[in-house]
Amino acid sequence: MDQFVLKRLGLIMKVDPESPDESGGVLNPACVRGKDGELYLFPRLVGPNNYSRIGVARVKFNSEGDPYDVERLGIALQPDQHYEQNQHTAGCEDPRVVYIEALDRYVMTYSAYGPMGPRIALAVSNDLVYWERLGPVVFAFEPNWRMDFNLYSNKDAIIFPEPVLDPAGRPAIAMLHRPTYDMFSFLNIAELTPYMVLPTGITDPRASMWLSYCPLETLLKNDGTIKAATLVFDQHHLFMTPVEAWENVKIGGGTPPVKTKYGWVCFFHGVSNEATNPLTSHHSTNHYAAGALVLDLNDPRKILYRSSEPVLSPKWAEEREGVVSNVVFPTGIDLRENGRLDVYYGMADQHIGAATLNLPDQLPVSH
């Protein structure tokens, strides 16, 4: 287990005190290598009234090859679409970015904070500069679950960087996501009685991770270009639920998966609280930590390794005190030479840190 513990490299992006666009924090960045070989971050920039944009920055490395700072390059997405706006504020939040060779595109998933709360939206780019929105994700209705997943708030979506075979044997884009079963959660009204609607067969009301698929044949035109239409994901599979004490409130996606000799490696987040009831726990007392996953390359529904203890927990002052205290939230990952993985994460919803590990000589056994 200790072989998967992340080692902190330091704080690499702080709030710019002179920028009102960052007054509420810089956090939870996507990261991806550009075609120029440079590493780019796409942080969530929070302004007054929780108004969130997605920025873009180039990562700076020191002589030892470790990240230590960024160069700000501007804004990637502004919340100017109807599905990114509501009566209180607007938001393009918590992006993840992967390059998918089969599409010859960078693909960004992000949380669009619209009238019905957060929903998953997608955008694509050729150059990491201009982003074409594909709109909100649509989930196909599947009678076995007896629930329309489009009615749930949903976020923490991550896309696999290569097509995999879906349960029907079709080449597909696979997406991990985290629906919330509380139908009124987006209203954020403390006095409102929670109203839980669970899919048929699901008994645990805590927010958990699901896996869904978008067949390539429905995504590509005959000439190989992407259809500028709503993406429909189906074949929904309950992927992972909270198990350990450090994730007793909920779990959710973290970094996109990267392909390694052991399988797909990614990091997720778990939330714990003294109150184990997910409907009554208060946000300010939650504790966010990160865990590690290894998934089968051919069938990502198969979990080959899941860390039983956190691989990164709030420890530094910047992680324990901030906009939301006691938070480490992994969202970006950079696969480097010789099995090195650098992880970029939000620190207390205010700053961005980096951590690293080297893949172990052999895959540990899950406890």
What does this structure look like?
- By secondary structure, the protein is mostly beta strands.
- The chain is built from two helices and 23 strands.
- Strands 10, 11, 12, 13, 14 and 15 form a six-stranded mixed sheet that branches. Strands 16, 17, 18, 19 and 20 form a five-stranded antiparallel sheet that branches.
- The N and C termini lie close together (9 Å).
- 47% of the residues are buried.
Q: How much helicity do the residues have? A: under 10%
Structural class: mainly beta
Through-space gap between termini: 9 Å
Poorly predicted parts? 275-283
| Individual helix count | 2
Sheet with most strands: 6 strands, mixed
Count of beta strands: 23
Mean pLDDT: 91
Shape: globular
Order of helices and strands: EEEEEEEEEEEEEEHEEEEEEHEEE
How much of the residues is beta strand, in percent?
A: over 45%
Described by its quaternary structure, the protein is single chain
Radius of gyration: 19 Å
Considering the chains and any ligands shown, give keywords for the structure.
367 residues; mainly beta; globular; single chain; 2 helices; 5-stranded antiparallel β-sheet
Short description:
With 367 residues, the chain is an all-beta fold. Helix content is 2%, strand content 46%.
Blueprint of the fold:
Blueprint: E1 7-13, E2 25-33, E3 39-46, E4 52-61, E5 67-77, E6 92-100, E7 105-114, E8 117-125, E9 132-136, E10 138-139, E11 153-159, E12 164-165, E13 171-180, E14 209-215, H1 216-219, E15 232-240, E16 250-253, E17 258-259, E18 264-272, E19 287-295, E20 303-306, H2 317-320, E21 328-335, E22 340-347, E23 351-358
Parallel strand pairs: 10-15
Antiparallel strand pairs: 1-23, 2-3, 3-4, 4-5, 6-7, 7-8, 8-9, 11-13, 12-13, 13-14, 14-15, 16-18, 17-18, 18-19, 19-20, 21-22, 22-23
